[in-house]
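We modelled the chain as a single entity of 383 amino acids. Its sequence is:
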Amino acid sequence: MDDSIADYGFLSDCRSAALVSRDGSVDWWCPGRFDAASVFARLLDERAGHWSIRPTVPFRVRREYLAGTLVLRTVFHTAGGAVAVTDALAQAPSTKGHDLGVAAPQVLLRCVEGVAGTVPVRMEWAPRMEYGRVTPRMAAVDAGVLATGGPAALRLAGPLPLAMARGVATAEMTVAAGEAYAWSLGFAPAYAAGGPASLDPRRALDDTVAAWRSWADLHRAYDGWRTDLVRHSALVVQGLTYRPSGAVVAAPTTSLPEQLGGERNYDYRYAWLRDFTLTMRALWVAACPDEAQALFGWVAAATGQLGDGDSVPIMYGIEGERDLTERSLDHLAGFAGSRPVRVGNEAWRQRQHDVLGEVLDAAYLFRDRLGPLPDEIRTLLVQ
């Protein structure tokens, strides 16, 4: 596990997020939705699940996102050569523009390519469902392994036979320049008809790159200071958007500490009305009216019909939930030993009187910069 959250790469399918360490380990993934239970949570405890692909010899690392995407490419340089690992959360084939996330197949893609010389590489897959509480059963299936445990099923499909032990599958390979190995890891609820999706990972990776770039091509209005960083920030905001509702989460993780070793470790996988104006300003600068309108539509739906004396919560769940009751996961050690680890957030019980002002200011910004107010915004404001 990396010591700094800044060392993690961010993947998104606009429904969930995964974090990838500098040394090639997926240490966080809550498939299905941002606030779901994890299947990889080594971010919070070494024993809570991961999927690593890395050289077995000393290496140095160079990383970058493919231009206009949240697809991450990590190049490992060793004394004997170099190998690249490209990671993405898949988008459905033919996804374009604002359809990002609409039909996301809930599949994590990893592709290993030889760049120069030869490099010995080890893959280790150790999923742990329910925030590390459940070690899955593993069984060989066509071209891969099916892992089931608790409420989740995962199917890992790839080109190599895997050695299986208790809750762990591994593969060893020597990757030469020009060679490629690719895997898809599909998720589904344990009792879902059809089970986890299995994609052609190379084709799915190309589809995902094309999908992100088609979205980025619609959002090039900003052309000011540090254009490259602002446009990439727009991709991150989109990656933090839960596409089915339009809500933008404050963070894709829980319990990263405000101070290492401290107790202020909160779950931020929710959307705050108190941040509403800031989010709208980010959308205005770097995006377009579609995202802003979707966000307002979510607020209107989440708020519902207010009566006399009703208060507006400061935050909601990503599908408009109000009850976000907090609990501690005492079996987890916490990021860099920072405990407790929390899921849920008791801030939902707070009352902050500036919330309505945030919504009004965001509405003014929308009308001033993005155009006439949609009907759902007008309905919300007149309550």
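As a brief sanity check on the tokenised model: The mean pLDDT is 90. The radius of gyration is 21 Å.
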